[in-house]
Amino acid sequence: MRLTRFAGLLAVLPLLAWAQQAIPTAAAIDAEAARLMAATQARGLAVAVIDAGQVRHVRAYGHRNAAGEPLRTDTVMYGASLTKTAFAYTVLQLVDDGLLDLDRPLAAYLARPLPDYPDQRRYGPWSGLAGDERWRQLTARRLLMHSGGFANFAFLEPDRRLRMHFDPGARYAYSGEGLILLQFVLERGLGLDMGAEMQRRVFDRFGMGRTSMTWRPDFAANLADGWTADGRAEPHDERSTVRAAGSMDTTIADMAMLAAGVIKGEGLSRQGAAALSAPGLPITTASQFPTLQPELPPTERRADLAAGLGVVTFLGPQGPGFFKGGHNDSTGNTWVCVKPAQRCVVILANDVRAERAFPALVRFILGETGVPWRWEYGGLAFVD
Predict the structure, then answer these.
(1) What CATH homologous superfamily does 4-11+19-99+192-376 map to?
(2) Which of 77, 81, 140, 265 has the most Cβ atoms closer than 10 angstroms to its Cβ?
């Protein structure tokens, strides 16, 4: 599929002067966060701001648990699907090192056909792909762009068996299962320990001392529980298995360091850094979820919205940007970057109700960016 209109816009980027506003003062951001937390009844929220590739502001607000203990910038919070971007960054380092080709069929890295591997709880039920040879068309690029053809997870299928709903690369359809499949190939095919690789290549590189792909006992003393949409407190899940789709625990201070590193492309070749947020596949649906919804008619699609590698790319009044969300019943996270000014906002919320404030808070800090909030969150009622 082509990105003709988007490519045309990108071609004239050097000729454009993108609109920017000054980053608000720390006191102003604090006041706006407090206002929006009150409007949404969110109990906990943490914010990091990067400007010109440097960390400028890191704050945490509210509570980390039902006992009322304060949420701090070093409180361990659930990263949810922000894990996928950290995983993609690791994969691109493997590509730079010549260990992986983004466009080589993943079948070439496996000792036997994918459906022949026994189903394991840690990975997906690959046996469901038996008889469908389209799995041989899967590549790392297609899985990182969520175009593998899968539902979000196999357990969401009526029979809980993995299947392909379209030809790989044909369209975008969000799939955590696809990222887990890529993890499987890297671990079984290349003999890598992806938890250790992410630790060394990303978390250690950026000084993320309280970030891990699995639970660490030292997290317990300063840990964020969460709150659901109905205000019910939920304990933090101690994840014991590395899952590329979303097992990362982190802090807002650590995520600030990661966002600053990513927007500058640290640890990657110039080609690798560009590949992460290059628009690679048009996004053709009205919203991100449900995953396998019908595509919109071409005239109703947003021309600048596309899949990158572990992120979604867009073009707005401040130039090209990318973002990634993370969510479960008691967690809401977002990570937004605009590339020309190397500016990012990262929000970690241990209360899913805070998601209603994300557009207003990002807009307050960065100005209008063009983030496709309605596509990301569907019918959620945002607050201003």
Answers:
(1) DD-peptidase/beta-lactamase superfamily (3.40.710.10)
(2) 77
